[in-house]
Amino acid sequence: xxxxxxxxxxxxxxxxxxxxxxxxxxxxxxxxxxxxxxxxxxxxxxxxxxxxxxxxxxxxxxxxxxxxxxxxxxxxxxxxxxxxxxxxxxxxxxxxxxxxxxxxxxxxxxxxxxxxxxxxxxxxxxxxxxxxxxxxxxxxxxxxxxxxxxxxxxxxxxxxxxxxxxxxxxxxxxxxxxxxxxxxxxxxxxxxxxxxxxxxxxxxxxxxxxxxxxxxxxxxxxxxxxxxxxxxxxxxxxxxxxxxxxxxxxxxxxxxxxxxxxxxxxxxxxxxxxxxxxxxxxxxxxxxxxxxxxxxxxxxxxxxxxxxxxxxxxxxxxxxxxxxxxxxxxxxxxxxxxxxxxxxxxxxxxxxxxxxxxxxxxxxxxxxxxxxxxxxxxxxxxxxxxxxxxxxxxxxxxxxxxxxxxxxxxxxxxxxxxxxxxxxxxxxxxxxxxxxxxxxxxxxxxxxxxxxxxxxxxxxxxxxxxxxxxxxxxxxxxx
Amino acid sequence: xxxxxxxxxxxxxxxxxxxxxxxxxxxxxxxxxxxxxxxxxxxxxxxxxxxxxxxxxxxxxxxxxxxxxxxxxxxxxxxxxxxxxxxxxxxxxxxxxxxxxxxxxxxxxxxxxxxxxxxxxxxxxxxxxxxxxxxxxxxxxxxxxxxxxxxxxxxxxxxxxxxxxxxxxxxxxxxxxxxxxxxxxxxxxxx
Lengths: 479, 191
Prior knowledge:
The structure holds 2 protein chains of 2 kinds. Chain A folds into 3 domains: 48 residues, no CATH class; 185 residues, Serine Threonine Protein Phosphatase 5, Tetratricopeptide repeat (Alpha Horseshoe); 121 residues, no CATH class. Helices cover 44% and strands 19% of the residues of chain A. By secondary structure, chain A is an alpha+beta fold. The radius of gyration of chain A is 32 Å and the shape is flat. In chain A, the strands form 3 sheets. A 9-stranded mixed β-sheet of chain A has the order 2-6-7-11-14-20-15-18-19, with no helix packed on it. By secondary structure, chain B is an all-alpha fold. Chain B folds into 2 domains: 95 residues, Rna Polymerase Sigma Factor, Chain: A (Orthogonal Bundle), CATH 1.10.1740; 73 residues, Orthogonal Bundle (Arc Repressor Mutant, subunit A). In chain B, 70% of the residues lie in helices and 0% in strands. Chain B is built from 8 helices and no strands. In chain B, helix 5 packs across helix 8. Classes of the chains: A alpha+beta, B mainly alpha. The interface between A and B is large, with 33 and 41 residues.
């Protein structure tokens, strides 16, 4: 008998997925063809077995595990959203404020960028994490005050201290392979400053004792890498280096360079004298800094020191510098220096719909020069603040909103927003900027010199050490 | 609006219970599909959880046009394909791999018996189950996925086509081919 139907048609027929005309045709054929009937029967039997035994059921723990994962994901999404808020606000800061801005708006924008380099870094950092560690490695967590055993993937936060027991080790790596640190037997290291997200910045490590081999890779080019020891500060920009700390009866720091060069200076000298006492250590050389003394003239590495540094090649691609440091009590506080900012424009953005809409409105307002649209954008930004009243980003957003109002010629609203920063975050590094901005708005936009003077004086009295105080003094001097 | 779309709409309006209901409706199906795709329970669990996280966080993007089933399976299918890419350099240990050699191919899964089953029945069912799973697992991916979606999870050809981002004709021909291979192998294995 000629078989008019193929396996595919039989399969479709079994699933009820064929057309009505095909169905009639197939059924007519099946009525007279025993082999096709048998094939259909076998297919059904086969399908029944597949259906019965092919099924799987999730374990009872599946639901609980899912809930935990979901909560974690939602928490991370919220954090990403806040990061996104800041990133987009900062992008808008340059596009809204810079191009058509009068003098003051430019100044506020510059202040805003300074905020980024001074304050935000603490809040949005890319934390390095433990890559691998032997036994007896503990982390003193600054935030909780607790000590935890190091485990792979543990994210270090600013202020955390890693202690390595004798005979053990810990590798710490930065996401993206920007740097790697190997803490050797008996070492102790504190993460004084982590690398900021989105922008160029500074990593600062306090090596208190023991040996630490540090490799900074080439993609670190735009940021600074500092290592503080009790006696010295080593600065590396766009190169790689290693720290090695050991305890001795007479505190001293040694710096050995494998490749490239590293700048090192004593930390006990008056600041003005530093420039003259900086020592640049080239590849294959080492220097020594005794407590309170200037670094010694670099000398060639000994064979034994070369041999020790060979370990670099096991933990990184290309190591260049080795720093050998002794123990000591005095520490040098990290220097905060403004650096150029870079904002990542990674797509897709993880912003909520409402913020995307806000950004769209601001974009449109800039394009059409529509003040009402600008104000709508500001109102929406203020809604963000209202929704997240105590977020880490509140002072930055408030400062931005203030400068935005000022740009739109609404000085009273600008002052209201600046004062919010000044009142609520009086102890933060944003406060001095808010005080200065308030004074400038009073002076230049409202011609209220008395109020301006009040804020300049307040700034000098309360935040005399901040850079804005110098500007305020200059302004008072002119009057 | 069908049941699934109604639940999604309720969830989009803040009704968490609606999501829980969707989760309950599709949990085993998605897990089962991923199990057959990945041949590894642990990875399937992880990915199935990812699927529901994706549904939870992306529900706002779903348009209620009656294709929720295809939508959720498409998420699962995409995640599975990503997992295959990762696996190209990883060695997997499956729950269905023998625990140790010389153990009559006893697997970890086999050690968990169902309630009320006698040892003889268990053995017979286990044999058959093992055979069927082996046959399915040996199918090339493109045949395996349509067989699992249509024959086990009972998606229509249209739903499977949407889930796999292909057309109905392709689903139909692959399904027929998958069935032919399964029939042939089962015959051969059963002697």
